[in-house]
Write a structure and sequence with these properties.
heterodimer, A: mainly alpha, MetI-like fold, 73% helix, flat, B: 251 residues, alpha/beta, Rossmann fold, 6-stranded mixed sheet, 4-stranded antiparallel sheet, 36% helix, globular, Glutathione import ATP-binding protein GsiA (chain B), ATP-binding (chain B), ABC_transporter-like_CS (chain B), EC 7.4.2.10 (chain B), cell inner membrane (chain B)
């Protein structure tokens, strides 16, 4: 029996095989979607860049070369993306910037997703005054423009990449809570939930074991699609000088730095801009593909 | 003594929908009791009120002589279990059969789960090969067997059956009904079966209650049903309808 047959078996022999088979089927469905694979490769490339940045980057991202000779050099074989006004190699900075971007994206996902899921499923499942209170809190957070609220947080906590992450995470969970609540409302009265109730399952068991797994996929899709927005918000905060602080190679801050000479030395602002564009596109493509695979309601 | 006793049960949803209006009946231990009626007659709601899924506005449900509290105690669920109408909706789409069957055992703290799961699958005529499948890998009849196995795994004394075969093909219906019949004889279970199909109820139940518009119309025994001895006009209509299509004879 080949590994493929083992995975696709209609008669799995163990829990592990059933789970592996299910994951493999999802992977096959995702693999058949070309654009999603492009997105996946971009995201994987971002991860690889972040991990191997010191190996890939030919120069130091923070310390530039000779200020008399190497400032604002156009792209060449020596400096693939040119150099900036402090004679730093932009390619090396973009590589190291991938670390910051990935950190922002990962931390926001790790902070905002559980908050949104927990609040949404709890509100949807329990209903009543719990629902009212939780959803009004969500509404209040939703009512603030995201960037403005993030700005307020950052100005309260002080500028810096960590505070930017906290600010973005605190402002990005309400849509997930809404989504999880809507999903929960559609399944809370379904027969399989009633069946679990009739077995004497506690509320917590139903919420975690039955409701959350079904809300998870659509929330994951939504988070992936929001990644582009998160990257842009982080870049926007960096651009405004409230996110990552110089000399950190954050892409938004790099664009802000290159703004002054955008006419004469276009590459300084353009290169990190391209990086933001490509990574955002990658997350969007991956999110679309995941939606096709994971969301049972989206018919192909 | 009656195993399940429903007395003057009223169920009101919200403020205006009066789904059940004063229904009373008793089911003895080991008996199979049917509730028949058209769609919207409140027959499923009676079942849901017994197991606590529908709110009891007034009246009482007694199990083994003791009035049931709302919400029900954990012990009640070990004694009374339910099989739902639609096997496509009553199994969690992301849980394997193994998970479906082991969850009630985990909730009630059973220890020999492996043996019980294999036994339960065997009891409903599914082999071990089905254990780690997902519901989408099963047919409707197989799913309903899993749902029956789930209800039986806690070894209840009463099984509430909410149209257990109406979502299945005719050939599968007979299989599932025979399975339910066999299990009842083997274990001495008490059944309350809800159906719109008089033939199914006549096959499965010794006594039955006819319901219309949330009210009990008439209680019949199987013998009287088969002899067509209905006293109420609605029951007679129902009996006539159950004979199916018959060409009009020229008068």
């Amino acid at each position: 029996m080949t590994r493929r047959e083992w995975l696709l078996s209609d008669y799995p022999q163990s829990r592990r095989q059933a789970r592996a088979g299910q994951s493999y089927r999802t992977w096959l469905a995702l693999k058949s979607n070309r654009l999603a694979m492009v997105g996946l490769w971009i995201v994987l490339a971002l991860v690889a860049m972040a991990i191997f940045a010191p190996l890939i980057a030919p120069y130091d991202p923070l310390i530039g070369g000779d200020l008399r000779l190497d400032r604002l050099q156009p792209p060449s074989w020596e400096h693939l993306m040119g150099t900036d006004d402090l004679a730093r190699d932009i390619f090396s900075r973009v590589m190291h910037g991938a670390r910051l971007t990935l950190m922002v994206v990962a931390l926001v996902a790790v902070i905002a997703t559980p908050i949104g899921l927990t609040i949404g499923t709890t509100a949807g499942y329990l209903g009543g005054w719990v629902d009212v209170v939780l959803m009004r809190v969500t509404d209040i957070f939703l009512a603030f423009p995201r960037l403005i609220l993030a700005l307020a947080f950052v100005s309260a906590l002080g500028p810096g990449i960590e505070n930017a992450i906290i600010a973005i995470a605190l402002t990005s969970w309400p849509p997930y809570a809404r989504l999880a609540r809507a999903e929960t409302l559609t399944i809370r009265d379904s027969d399989f939930i009633n069946a679990a109730r009739l077995q004497g399952a506690s509320r917590l068991r139903i919420l975690w074991g039955h409701v959350t797994p079904l809300c998870l996929s659509s929330v994951i899709v939504r988070v992936t699609l929001d990644m582009a927005g998160i990257i842009l918000t982080a870049a926007g905060l960096g651009f405004l000088g409230l996110g990552a602080q110089p000399p950190q190679p954050e892409w938004g801050a790099m664009i802000a730095g290159g703004r002054r000479f955008i006419i004469d030395y276009w590459w300084v602002a353009t290169m990190p801009g391209i990086a933001i564009f490509v990574v955002s596109l990658g997350f969007n493509l991956l999110g679309d593909g995941l939606r096709d695979v994971l969301d049972p309601k989206a018919v192909k | 003594m009656a195993m399940i006793e429903v007395s003057d049960l009223h169920v009101v949803f919200g403020t205006s929908v009066h789904a059940v209006r004063g229904v009373s009946f008793e089911v003895a231990e080991g008996e199979s009791y049917g509730i028949v009626g058209e769609s919207g007659s409140g027959k499923s709601t009676v079942l849901r009120a017994i197991c606590g899924l529908a709110p009891t506005s007034s009246g009482a449900v007694r199990y083994d002589g003791a009035a049931l509290k709302s919400p029900r105690q954990a012990d009640f669920y070990r004694r009374v279990q339910m099989v739902f109408q639609d096997p496509y909706a009553s199994l969690h789409p992301r849980h394997t059969i193994d998970r479906v069957l082991s969850e009630p055992l985990a909730i009630h703290g059973f220890t020999d789960r492996e043996r019980r799961i294999e036994q339960a699958l065997e009891d409903v005529g599914l082999g071990k090969g089905f254990r780690f499948r997902y519901p989408h890998q099963l047919s409707g009849g197989q799913r309903q067997r899993v749902a029956i196995a789930r209800a039986l795994i806690l070894e209840p004394r009463v099984l509430l059956l909410d149209e257990p075969t109406s979502a299945l093909d005719a050939s599968i219906q007979a299989e599932v009904l025979n399975l339910l019949d066999r299990i009842r004889t083997e274990r001495g279970l008490t059944y309350i079966l809800v159906s719109h199909d008089l033939a199914v109820v006549a096959h499965m139940c010794e006594r039955l209650l006819v319901m219309q518009h949330g009210k009990a119309v008439e209680e019949l025994t199987r013998a009287r049903l088969q002899a067509r001895e209905a006293t109420q006009p609605y029951t007679r209509d129902l009996l006539l309808a159950s004979e199916g299509y018959r060409p009009l004879q020229d008068a």
